[in-house]
Amino acid sequence: MKRLALLGASGHGKVVADAALAAGWQSVEFFDDAWPRVSVNGHWPVSGDTAALLTRVLEFDGVLVSIGNCLARWEKQQVLRAAGARLATVVHPHACVSPFARLGAGTVVMAGAVVTVDAAVGEACIINTGATVDHDCVLAEGVHIGPGAHLSGNVIVGGCSWVGIGAAVRQGTCIGAGAMVGAGAVVVKAVGDGLTVAGCPAMPLVRI
Ligand SMILES: CC(C)(COP(=O)(O)OP(=O)(O)OC[C@H]1O[C@@H](n2cnc3c(N)ncnc32)[C@H](O)[C@@H]1OP(=O)(O)O)[C@@H](O)C(=O)NCCC(=O)NCCS
Prior knowledge:
Distance between the termini: 55 Å
Helix content: 10-25%
Strand content: 25-35%
CATH class of the largest domain: Mainly Beta
Bound molecules: coenzyme A
Order of helices and strands: EHEEEHEHEEEEEEEEEEEEEEEEEEE
Number of strands: 24
C-alpha cells in the first residue's frame, strides 16, 4: 500500500489528494494545524496537526504540503524535510510534463497543465489546473502558477510568488520573489520583489 500524507486540509488539498490517487497513490491522510476542529477534508480523514505528522513521518511513503499560501507551504516543507520526510512530487496523469523538464520535490502538477522542454520547476510549487509553463522557464521554490495561467518561454519566477488564475506572462520576463500577479493580468515587463500587479498591461496595484 502506497501511503501519502498531506499537510494542509484545504480545498487545494482535496485537489492534490484527487490528483495523487489518480497518479497511483493508494491512500491519502491529511494533517492540519486546525485539527481537532477540522477532522475531515472532503473524502479523507484529518489525523492530527503538524506535530502529529512529525511523530509519524516515517510511516508514509510520501509526504507533501498542500497549503495554498506560498510562503507557508515552503516553510512547512523545510520542517518536514528536516524531520526526514520522503517528499513526494505529484503529477496528475492528465498533465503533460516533458521528460526534459525538471520538477522539484513537493511540487504538484494538476490535470490539464503542461510543462514543456527544459523548464525547471523548483520545490513545493503548484502548477495548477490547465496552467502552462513553457520552454526554459525557471521557477524557484514555493511558486504557484494558478489555474489557466500561462508562462511563455524563458520566464523566471522568484521564490514564493503567485501568478493568479488566467494570467499571461510574456516570454523572457522576470517576476521577482514574493510577488503577486493578479487574476487575468498580462505581464509584459519585469515585476519587482514583493510587488502585486494586475491588469493589461500589468501595473502595480495602487491602494488609496
Ligand atoms: C490582485 C489581487 C491579489 C488583489 O487582491 P486585494 O489586495 O484583496 O485587492 P482588492 O480585491 O481589495 O482590490 C483592490 C482594487 O484592485 C482591483 N483588482 C483586484 N484584482 C484585480 C485584478 N486581478 N485585475 C484588475 N484589477 C483588480 C479591484 O477591482 C479594486 O479596485 P478599486 O479599488 O478600483 O475598487 C486579487 O484580486 C487577485 O487577483 N488574486 C488572484 C486570485 C486567484 O488567482 N485565485 C485562484 C485561486 S487557485
